[in-house]
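Exercise 7b. Backbone tokens:
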């Protein structure tokens, strides 16, 4: 499998054992459909890469955060109640969207002692400093800070004498002293870890000091989140955090970026209830992962049409022939192994549908395999298929028409 690194624009060939990390959700609200695109995309990556090797896949849960505190205050509930509620909703979404469960799903709340040790090590090495109970990473000591995204550190730095707490206004928090919300005891103060420290710590904890093969996430996380991750990990281990960075494009609604802050987001559960999980998966994956998606009525109708065509092809085939087992499709594997080109994958899928409609048994078996790889769930009810055939043979057309609609759930 070859994937393109966002920063170098070069394709990197991955081995049979892949260490993958994808930034997870902050569990304070209903996930919107844009939140689900990265995990859907990297679920396909996981499914393809796992065919010929092992994928050690980590997807974290941020269950301690200022946004969770604000939501708890607003709803007059505890932070734990809020994070537990929305973690459950997110995990249910993963199940509904046919996501293969990642190898690791660590929660921040269960890893604070380790994060404190991680931060303390950075302080001991001189990369971080304590100020009024909080701890900040000193970007001045990272000579490469921001270069990968063309930031000029000289332009970022201010004179230390002008700063009351931070030595540089762009130094970022590793530990926040706070009395608001849940807090933990540390060598510096009662407080909690900074957001940027989570992923750097989890990668070191789970994968060690040699970094990972692929780090994925939404394009909005590139700076400052991932740049700050890189700095901490490199400072702590002396090594680069990831060999390859893969970024998923924004999801827009009617040409406007979808965002909770703009209050124009479409809840993932609401979308699935209105349409289906399969339709959402088609929308989020039929366009190349690097490109933005603009969700409008036309795109939704196209996805509905895609699912309808797949359903009708399967139904027509099994009625006229029989149910067959899936077989591997090397063509689709090759397409998706080329920088996860799902757009080309769907083009090929439509070509395969034409062969299935002509009664080609091998094409049908490959279709079933490809639906599994793309995460599109197709349930064939063999009992209703047999009942349909029996009703049809007995000229009970009212019953057979009813059963025909229920043979394939897609």
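Sequence design result:
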């Amino acid at each position: 499998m070859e994937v393109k690194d966002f920063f170098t624009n070069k394709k990197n060939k991955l081995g049979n054992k892949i260490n993958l990390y994808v930034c997870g959700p902050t569990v304070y609200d209903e996930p919107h459909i844009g939140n689900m695109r990265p995990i859907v995309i990297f679920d396909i990556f996981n499914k393809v890469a796992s065919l010929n090797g092992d994928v050690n896949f980590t997807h974290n849960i941020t269950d301690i955060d200022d946004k969770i505190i604000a939501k708890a205050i607003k709803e007059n509930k505890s932070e734990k109640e809020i994070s537990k509620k929305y973690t459950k909703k997110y995990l249910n979404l993963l199940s509904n969207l046919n996501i293969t469960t990642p190898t690791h799903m660590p929660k921040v709340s269960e890893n604070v002692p380790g994060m404190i040790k991680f931060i303390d090590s950075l302080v001991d090495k001189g990369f971080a400093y304590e100020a009024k109970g909080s701890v900040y990473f000193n970007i001045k000591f990272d000579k490469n800070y921001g270069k990968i995204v063309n930031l000029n550190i000289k332009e970022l730095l201010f004179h230390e004498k002008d700063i009351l707490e931070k030595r540089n206004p762009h130094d970022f928090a590793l530990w926040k002293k706070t009395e608001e919300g849940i807090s933990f005891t540390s060598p510096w103060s009662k407080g909690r870890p900074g957001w940027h420290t989570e992923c750097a710590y989890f990668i070191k904890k789970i994968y060690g000091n040699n970094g990972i093969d692929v780090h994925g996430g939404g394009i909005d996380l590139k700076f400052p989140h991932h740049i700050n991750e890189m700095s901490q990990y490199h400072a702590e281990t002396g090594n680069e955090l990831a060999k390859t960075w893969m970024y998923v494009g924004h999801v827009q609604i009617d040409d406007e970026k979808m965002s909770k802050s703009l209050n124009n987001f479409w809840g993932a559960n609401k979308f699935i209830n209105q349409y289906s999980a399969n339709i959402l998966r088609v929308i989020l994956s039929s366009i190349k992962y690097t490109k933005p998606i603009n969700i409008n009525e036309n795109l939704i109708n196209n996805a509905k049409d895609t699912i309808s065509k797949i359903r009708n092809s399967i139904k027509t085939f099994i009625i006229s022939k029989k149910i067959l087992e899936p077989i591997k499709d090397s063509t689709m594997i090759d397409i998706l192994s080329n920088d996860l080109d799902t757009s080309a994958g769907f083009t090929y899928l439509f070509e395969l549908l034409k062969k299935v409609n002509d009664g080609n048994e091998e094409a049908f078996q490959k279709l079933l395999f490809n639906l599994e790889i793309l995460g599109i769930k197709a349930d064939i009810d063999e009992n209703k298929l047999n009942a349909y055939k029996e009703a049809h043979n007995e000229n009970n057309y009212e019953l057979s028409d009813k059963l025909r609609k229920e043979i394939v759930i897609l």
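Instructor comment: The chain has two domains: 2-257, 297-409. The chain has a mean pLDDT of 93.
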